[in-house]
């Protein structure tokens, strides 16, 4: 998959020797001699952000947070407050005012800067360690409304507030461990669907209303409203088997969404599925 974005993206932030070495390591992760996922991490290189980059963050934050205040899950909103997500500047990943400083005592999760797309096993290895591989670049100003690839607005604004919730935090780590365990393409596909319909595009029922929590919805002004209001969307109650059997398409607004009753429901369903996969892996190893 292509990992570079077009437009006036500040490639200098990720294209240096350290970025290239980290990406090469990630691409080979899992092969003999490539078992240390921390070597896929890089520094955020915060000084590399331009004033235009900072303006893009503020514009995106303002545009989306006002809508989310009344339409996002309370778990997302309190997470955003707890990690001190602010409009004034692109989040810091290290230092006393960083999201990681506030996250650590809450759940132990951390966001780790990566140079680009991580292959599946490398991505799962990060999650299994309670580490979230985070794109550090931000979308070009001319692509402010839509970008197919993740950027720091999607990865931090969209994903990280939920990592402050202990139940979601446990779910995501269990997901990573389970996904790391299996090499069965059947289960790999089911797990990618589970990720898609929950972490990326999930809805949750709170106070008698559907609310947003999936990062793809949270970070998208257009799709967040569509997900909650369009008659074209089939909103189904969450059921792990049903989710794992539902295929998805990536290039348009989602026609099917799944609605959780609670994050405990998601965590418990994942625990059950993970146990199945871990037992199967143990049985295979014993044969
Ligand atoms: Fe995402």
Give the tally of structural domains.
Answer: 1
The outline comes out as globular
CATH class reads Mainly Alpha
Strand arrangement in the largest pleated sheet: 4-3-6-5
CATH homology group: Aromatic amino acid hydroxylase
User: Major beta sheet, specifics?
Assistant: 4 strands, mixed
Mean pLDDT: 93
Report the uncertain regions: 1-6
Structural class: alpha/beta
Number of helices: 12
Query: Could you name the CATH topology?
Result: Phenylalanine Hydroxylase
Outline the structure in words.
The chain has a single domain, classed as Aromatic amino acid hydroxylase (Phenylalanine Hydroxylase, Orthogonal Bundle), CATH 1.10.800. The chain is built from 12 helices and 6 strands. The protein has helices at residues 17-28, 51-71, 74-82, 99-107, 120-128, 152-159, 166-181, 185-200, 215-218, 221-229, 240-244, 263-286, and strands at residues 110-114, 131-135, 203-206, 209-212, 234-237, 256-260. Strands 4-3-6-5 form a 4-stranded mixed sheet. Strand 3 (203-206) and strand 4 form a beta hairpin. The longest helix is centred in the C-terminal third of the chain and has 24 residues, at 263-286. The two termini are 36 Å apart. Fe (ii) ion binds at residues 150, 154, 159, 200, 215.
């Amino acid at each position: 998959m292509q990992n570079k974005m077009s437009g006036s993206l500040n490639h200098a932030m990720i294209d240096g020797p350290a970025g290239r070495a980290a990406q090469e390591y990630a691409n080979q992760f899992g092969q003999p001699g490539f078992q240390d996922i921390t070597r896929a991490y890089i520094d955020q290189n915060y000084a590399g952000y331009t004033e235009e980059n900072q303006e893009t963050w503020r514009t995106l934050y303002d545009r989306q947070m006002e809508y989310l205040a009344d339409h996002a899950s309370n778990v997302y909103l309190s997470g955003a407050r707890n990690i001190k997500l602010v409009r004034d500047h692109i989040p810091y990943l290290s230092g006393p005012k960083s999201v990681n400083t506030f996250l650590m005592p809450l759940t132990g999760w951390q966001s780790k800067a990566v140079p680009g797309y991580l292959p599946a096993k490398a991505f799962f290895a990060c999650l299994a360690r309670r580490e979230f591989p985070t794109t550090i670049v931000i979308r070009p100003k001319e692509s402010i409304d839509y970008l197919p690839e993740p950027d720091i607005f999607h990865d931090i604004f969209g994903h990280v507030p939920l990592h402050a919730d202990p139940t979601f935090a446990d779910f995501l780590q269990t997901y990573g461990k389970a996904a790391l365990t299996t090499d069965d393409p059947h289960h790999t596909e089911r797990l990618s669907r589970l990720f898609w319909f929950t972490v990326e595009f999930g809805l949750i029922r709170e106070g008698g209303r559907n609310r947003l929590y999936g990062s793809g919805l949270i970070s998208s002004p257009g799709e967040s409203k569509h997900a909650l209001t369009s008659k074209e969307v089939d909103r189904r109650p969450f059921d792990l088997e049903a989710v794992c059997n539902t295929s998805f398409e990536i290039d348009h607004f989602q026609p099917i969404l799944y609605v959780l009753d609670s994050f405990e429901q998601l965590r418990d369903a994942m625990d059950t599925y993970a146990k199945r996969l871990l037992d199967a892996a143990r049985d295979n190893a014993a044969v």
